Amino acid sequence: MLVLAVVVIVGAALVAGAAWGAWFEIPDLVEGLLLATASGALVTSVAFELVEPAVDEAGVGVAMVALAAGAVVFTGVDYLIDEVWHGEDGFGIMAAVTLDGVPENLALGVALIGASAGDVAALAAAIMLSNLPEAAGASNDLSDEGWSAARNIGMWAAVAVVLGLATVIGRLTLAGVSDAWLGGIESFAAGAVLASLATEVVPDAFRKASHAAGVAITAGFVMTFLLTA
What we know:
Blueprint: H1 2-23, H2 28-58, H3 60-84, H4 90-114, H5 117-144, H6 149-173, H7 179-209, H8 212-228
């Protein structure tokens, strides 16, 4: 029941963001501040809900290798989307959000296996915060390209289903794996999330909110840290 509730709540942020972007113009400052807050929240969650448990379960060496592998894989695929497939329009951004969301939601599913309610809540809140403005911004771009609101929101609902499945798969299929494998998977997901923050989320946040993004990132970090504590 908890898995279903988390999937619905996190997915609803994508659909709500899509509706926001399809029906309303979003000020750059607002979008940038939301992205920055989400970035700070995700940094905290990566450290405490993914990397720290991974080190305990798999050891420092395995965790760090998996972390680097996650970052390399995400960066490579992200490069293909941006530079080879030229995914800079709304559809490309949506593909990037989906790519970004798979490791996040897989990690959320893994966290549901043994993490405390506070840890799960912190990670879910961080993912929700990032989903909302990313979906809103991409939805805005798709509307500018002539997409109807119904098509726009429907497409993002499909993305929410895909990412929800990643959470369910993480929870159901990884529950019986050894601690070493579980730690490696957590750390791999953490590396992918960190790479996505560096290449997609933080640059966009600064571009839209300028130096105010620095304060918002710190606010997101503090908020999630307190929730975890």
